[in-house]
Amino acid sequence: MKIILASASPRRKELLKKIYDEFEICPSSADETLPDGISCDKAAEYLASAKAFQVAENNKDSLVIGCDTIVICDSKILGKPSDEKNAAEMLRMLSGKTHRVITGVCLCYGGKSMSFSSQTYVEFYELSDSEINDYIATGEPSDKAGAYGIQGLGGLFVRKIDGDFYNVVGLPAAELNRKLKQFTADLKE
């Protein structure tokens, strides 16, 4: 069975290598607009499903894995920052607080699908303006939900984590491994 990761994220690619030696990368071009009224808890899974379904349309004989990661702070969804000013706003919002990181995952194959979400709580230290500005100057926050990468320099802001570290990186590898086994077993029935 051919495996396709519907993401261009180098972090997800590295994490998926823990499960599969070989797979293809086919980033999704799905519309990432959230419908009105969707709960924060369901947003990442909704977007992951949209990405997986879009890629699966042209890859019916492949197992497609779609993913999306969001950060939620004060009931507000923080995606990737639009610019440096937006990144600074996000980091100030996260400073000294606990936030949630939710990664939604959707598996598609042969018209069947399974989706799930993984949630991790992350607590940040208080951040000074100079810490925020210095971090933004590295360029690391530009393509990451919540404007930080826990696996990079952003990890220096983390006081405590409750949940799956890899979920915060962008792919809950251990849970995904179990769900893939379940999904592929269900396909054989």
Would you kindly provide a brief summary of this structure?
This protein has 189 residues and is an alpha/beta fold.
- Helix percent reads 25-40%
How many individual helices?
A: 6
Average of pLDDT:
96
Which band does the percent of strand residues land in? 25-35%
- The computed structural class is alpha/beta
Extract low-pLDDT stretches.
Answer: none
How does the overall form come out from the CA principal axes?
elongated
Strand segment tally: 7
As a whole number of angstroms, the C-alpha radius of gyration is 17 Å
User: Termini, distance in Å?
Assistant: 16 Å
- Sheet with most strands: 7 strands, mixed
User: How are helices and strands ordered from N to C?
Assistant: EHEHEEHEEHEHH
